[in-house]
Amino acid sequence: MSAPATPAPGPAPGPAPGSAAGATGGPARPRDLAQLGLCAFLAALGALVVADAATLSQGLVDEGVVGPRPVPYAVGAGLVLTSLVLALDVLRGGRGQAEEGEDVDASAGSDWTRLALLALVFAANVLLVERLGWAISAAVFFGATAKVLGGRSLLRATAVGAVLSLLTFYFFWVVLGIQLPPGVLDGIL
């Protein structure tokens, strides 16, 4: 076995004289303006949520301990805190790690046809939910979306969608007290 090669004696490589890193004595840390912009957006969004929460009236929950304000206050404060922590990390030179677990071909282009079909299915659901009712429109929406995204059987996807739409219809109606539109099934459901 041969011994590992040793480096030749001499000065260690470093930043060029007169560069920003050489002047401060440490490595230069570029600031990512896009991430700082995201921090500013998150802080503004959090401030907006807190300001909007302050305008909420107590409404029907006058006697309870928890009214409608604590959740938006917590969400707004969380957004502001997250933006501050992220900004501090970015200013210290932190950078996000590249995604490794995704099974996506980054070199492939966007599938605009599929996106257009999904937008069309969504728009059809919005237009038909009042006329046909939640149970039917949600079943068709689920089946069509599954088929556009590569599902094999439109009939099976629509059947699964029908079961899910009926379960959500009764959950909203009975448990939450929110009446979804029954549409053509009015009186049957």
Descriptive account of the structure:
The N and C termini lie far apart (about 80 Å). Helix 2 packs antiparallel against helix 3 (about 70-90), helix 4 (about 110-130) packs antiparallel against helix 5 and helix 5 (about 135-150) crosses helix 6. Helix content is about 55%, strand content about 0%. The chain has about 190 residues and is mostly helical.
The main pleated sheet reads as: none
Could you give the distance between the termini?
82 Å
Helix content: 55-70%
Number of helices: 6
Strand percentage lies at under 5%
Series of secondary-structure elements, N-terminal to C-terminal: HHHHHH
The secondary-structure class comes to mainly alpha
Note the overall shape. flat
Give the secondary structure arrangement, pairings included:
Blueprint: H1 20-24, H2 33-54, H3 70-91, H4 112-132, H5 134-148, H6 154-176
Provide a compact summary of the structure.
By secondary structure, this protein is mostly helical.
Structure keywords:
flat; 57% helix; single chain; mainly alpha; 189 residues
